[in-house]
Structure formats: C-alpha cells, structure tokens
Amino acid sequence: MNRLKRERSLTAESFGRFLRWLSGDDEEAVSQYETIRRKLVRYFIHKGCTDPDELFDETVDIVVGKIDAGEEILNPLAYCHGVAKNVWRQSIRKSRTVSQSREFPSPEPEDWTEHEQELLCLERCMNQLTSEEREVVTRYHTSRGRERIEARQALAGGKSGANALRIKVCRIRKDLRLCVIDCLKRTPGAGSLEAEG
C-alpha cells in the first residue's frame, strides 16, 4: 500500500526537482543523492529496519513534498536525516500497533524429556569450547538492560570492537547449534532440533 502511494506521489518531474534542489550541476546532484541514499539506508539498517529501502523512499517522498510546498532548506543531508528519524519513529509506532493487535497462538506443551536431552547436549557442547569462548558467550548472554550493554562493551574492548564481538559470538553460537544437533542425532529419540539440521 505504501509502495502504491509512493508511485503516485513521486513523479519524474518532482524527483527532478529533488535532484535540482540538491545541486544545480547534474553530476553533483546525482553524487549527493547517492551519498544521502547510502547514509540513510545505513541509518535504517543500524536501527534494525526490515525494509530500509522502503523507508528511504518514504523519506524522499516527504522531502519532495516539502520542496514542492516551497519550504526553504539550507542543508539537504541534515534535513533528510531529520526526516528519516521521523520516518523511522513512525514505522516503530506502526509495528508496535500491529504486533499488539495480532493474536498469537499459544505454545504447544513441551516434551520435557526432549528438553532435558537438549540441555544435556548443550552442556556437553559448551564443555567442548575453549575457556575463552565459553566465557565470551556466557558473559554476552548473561545480564539484562544497562548491565548487558556495559558487559558487552567491556567484552568488545570499546565501540570499535563491537562488530568483531558480534561476529565472534555468532560464530560460537553456530558451532554450538551444530554440535547440539549432532549430539541429538546420536541420542536415541532425538529431539526437534534434528529435523531443523
């Protein structure tokens, strides 16, 4: 539905005005457009949006509307970023409304024998990790709220190592999952994880 609205509102003529608003020089305008697109899509990805391109298009629609209305804007990148923040906030509000109104099925009762077996396999696999890997994955998932943020920052050694930490934890969790699946396959009456492997 948003896509249909966008197709109706963003004409070639209004997009041309948007480019001319960025710069009188065609090459410079395209370069600025690509820079704005790259930065805003990266912003939406960083915020965890599932469709950053759609939110970028909504942002451009709003900016084009402001340009068409004759609003004076001095810094295109800063203005687009401000509009993008509002678009992101609005998308969050919409997603909260949808998830609260949706009915979720009750979880099926668990087979506790299966669950116990999965836990035993997880414990075995955790013991196969190096002490450093065990400490990283345990500290990464232990605390909540502000404590969690501080613990992860300490593990990462500052903001520069945060991405490396996420990659490391992802790799360890993948190895653990494969190990648990393998363990369950070798156990009589293997659980539900076997089917996923």
What does this protein structure show overall?
The chain is mostly helical and 197 residues long. It folds into two domains: 2-101, no CATH class; 112-196, no CATH class. The protein has helices at 2-9, 12-22, 26-46, 52-68, 76-101, 112-128, 131-142, 145-156, 162-186, 193-196. Helix 1 runs parallel beside helix 4. The model is unreliable at 1-8 and 190-197 (pLDDT under 50).
Topology readout:
Elements lengths: L1 H8 L2 H11 L3 H21 L5 H17 L7 H26 L10 H17 L2 H12 L2 H12 L5 H25 L6 H4 L1
Helix pairs in contact: 1-4, 2-3, 2-4, 3-4, 3-5, 4-5, 6-9, 7-8, 8-9
Enumerate how many helices there are, as a single number.
10
Give a quick account of the main beta sheet: strands, pairing sense, barrel closure. Answer: none
Structural class: mainly alpha
Got a strand count?
A: 0
What count of structural domains?
2
SSE string, helix = H, strand = E?
A: HHHHHHHHHH
| Straight-line N-to-C gap | 37 Å
- Principal-axis shape equals elongated
Structure characteristics:
197 residues, mainly alpha, 10 helices, 78% helix, elongated, disordered N terminus, disordered C terminus
Could you give a quick summary of the protein structure above?
This protein is mostly helical.
